[in-house]
Amino acid sequence: MTAIALLGSQPVFVSSQPTNSTSPKTEPSPHKGFSVKNMDLSISPKDDFYHFAVTKIDALSSKEDLITLMATQGFMGIPSVFGIFVMPDKKQSNINALYNGSVLPLGKDFYENSDYSSQRKAYLAHIAKMLELAGETPNNAQTQAQTIFELETALAKGMLSPIEATDVNRTYNKIRK
Asked: Among 7, 74, 3, 68, which Cα is nearest to 40's?
């Protein structure tokens, strides 16, 4: 599996596989920007996504492996916990800036506001049902759904509320070299 690491202004291809004659080697990009020329972004037609993801997750052995998996998922168009995107700088619109953010689908209020308790219960049941349809036993699906929901709830606690997120000064964290 290969991902791109932005080191300074020079993008570098990074492989999480041991280097051998069949795996891509780490190499500087010859271009400004990046290329996915040497990246394996494929899923075999016989593999369904759930088993693909479980196999990749089970193979994680370090934080670096997790970062590589999340980057690879992003290049494949598969959402991860965080998204990275380019858009005009919030205070200097004539330049572009790299932003990151949580891709939790339901927002902070859903996880914290008591008005959504029945929707949270239905959402938990939905997660469990999706896991069952992917082949998990009902007991395992319920346990895994609870773990997923607890992780999402913990991530939501660190999010800004919708009102707070409109404040440019709270969301502008420019990094200068």
From this structure: 3
15 contacts 26 by C-beta, under 8 angstroms: yes
How many Å apart are CA 129 and CA 21, to the nearest integer? 43
Sign of CA dihedral 30, 34, 36, 38: positive
What six digits make up the tokens of 37? 């020329």
What is the predicted pLDDT for the residue at 50?
Answer: 64
Please give the Cα distance from 20 to 66 (Å, whole number): 22
Which two structure tokens, joined as six digits, stand for 45?
A: 């037609």
- Ranges in the chain, pLDDT < 70: 1-50, 79, 177
Q: Give the other-Cβ count within 10 Å of 12's Cβ.
A: 15
Q: Give CA–CA dist 21/43, Å, rounded.
A: 21
DSSP H stretches of helix in the chain: 49-58, 63-76, 107-112, 117-133, 138-157, 162-165, 168-171
Contact between 38 and 2 (Cβ < 8 Å): yes
pLDDT score recorded for residue 8: 33
- Cα–Cα distance between 109 and 165 in angstroms, integer? 12
- pTM to 2 decimals? 0.58
